[in-house]
Amino acid sequence: MEHTILNDLVSRFPQLAVCKEDVAKAFAILSGSYQNHGKLLVCGNGGSAADAEHIVGELMKGFKSPRHLDVASQSKLKNVDKGLGDLLAKNLQGALPAIALDGHPALSTAYMNDCNPLMCFAQQVNGYGCEGDVLLGISTSGNSQNILYAAVTAKAKGMKVIGLTGAKGSKLSDMADVCICVPETETYKIQELHLPVYHCLCLMLEEEFFGTDK
């Protein structure tokens, strides 16, 4: 069955029609992981690091929907402390666990100083990642060495790997379980198309898990 949000993406950005099948595959991987209580790890460099943070922001709180807590979760909060719990119950939102690996400056700088700087993302995948989780590697070239190290580590831990790249073939596209290769080759143009792709995925996930406040 065609997904309305995905169809809307292609309607608004016709050039992304070539990515439609891979976006659907990426959604299936992410949805399956979240259904089994998995989490998403996201990494990228430069503008793609900002995209990683952006994605986490859309998943960890309400994006388009309010994501009210269910009655059972609200009751648990109130049972701990009536006053504080009542305020929390009214304000907390449902979240899809996601971590951007570009942050954590103390850890990152310590690892880069003491070990191999290009393996900093891989170290975090090694620490945070569990079987059934997903790694989303964002690289306009698809050949960023630190992203590739992270992808190898993720695969070794039994995680799925999703790539988000440009049109050219790459090591990441060969390694990933699915790679969304937007049809541009210049860095800024690739990044311009990455945003609607990951917004689409975030909207689809929100609808799947929080539509009509499930």
Features:
alpha/beta; Rossmann fold; five-stranded parallel beta sheet; 214 residues
Blueprint of the fold:
Blueprint: H1 4-12, H2 20-35, E1 40-44, H3 47-59, H4 71-80, H5 82-91, E2 98-100, H6 105-114, H7 120-128, E3 134-138, H8 145-156, E4 160-165, H9 171-175, E5 178-181, H10 187-210
Parallel strand pairs: 1-2, 1-3, 3-4, 4-5
In short:
One of its GO terms (biological process) is carbohydrate derivative metabolic process. The chain is an alpha/beta fold and 214 residues long.
Describe it for me?
This protein has 214 residues and is of the alpha/beta class. The protein has a single domain (1-65, 95-210), classed as Rossmann fold. Helices cover 55% and strands 11% of the residues. It has helices spanning 4-12, 20-35, 47-59, 71-80, 82-91, 105-114, 120-128, 145-156, 171-175, 187-210; strands at residues 40-44, 98-100, 134-138, 160-165, 178-181. The chain has a five-stranded parallel beta sheet with strand order 2-1-3-4-5, with helices on both faces. α8 links the parallel β3 (134-138) and β4. α2 (20-35) packs across α10, α3 runs parallel beside α10 (187-210) and α4 runs antiparallel to α5 (82-91).
